[in-house]
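DATA SHEET
Item: assembly model
Revision: 1
Owner: S.N.
Input lines:
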Amino acid sequence: KQEVTQIPAALSVPEGENLVLNCSFTDSAIYNLQWFRQDPGKGLTSLLLIQSSQREQTSGRLNASLDKSSGRSTLYIAASQPGDSATYLCAVKTGANNLFFGTGTRLTVIP
Amino acid sequence: SAVISQKPSRDICQRGTSLTIQCQVDSQVTMMFWYRQQPGQSLTLIATANQGSEATYESGFVIDKFPISRPNLTFSTLTVSNMSPEDSSIYLCSVLQGSTEAFFGQGTRLTVV
């Protein structure tokens, strides 16, 4: 069974700092990997989707990379802002409809 | 991207009662998914809701506890029945667009007292 791990579980950085969130998965046979943002008590907002054939995706200050063979993905956030404070979740899609989620990294950006 | 409206956004319910959560999508989708997120945990898939057939439940979830309706291609409901404090969670509906990218509703934060 696919297992998804995110490290660190929590991260606190000063505003303006660049940071990297990590996601690892045990089975490299994935269709894609998706990064989400979740604000407290809310739903998930899709940030970036990387297909299994891709190496990275970029959106604004966010860059996600995928190394399928090693079972790893990173989410890079440049010039962090207090509004970036949230929990970041990664999920891998295997099979037709199965999404396996990590437990998330709770990010706090200090003004 | 798909826009998903989910309601209620939050509720506080008495134990033993039931709550029905609604999920409306702005486009037709074949499958809709219902997830549970217990406090401090990640998401767990409850069931897949298919239009025109019974929902498919994941291990540990049963229809009597979580009945699901899917009357058309844009709407689904999840009922949490005979609630206990252990059912306190965030419940989320989701769709796959183009069978690849997942989109989520804003979630229903349920507290059972």
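QC remark: The two ends of chain A are 41 Å apart (CA to CA).
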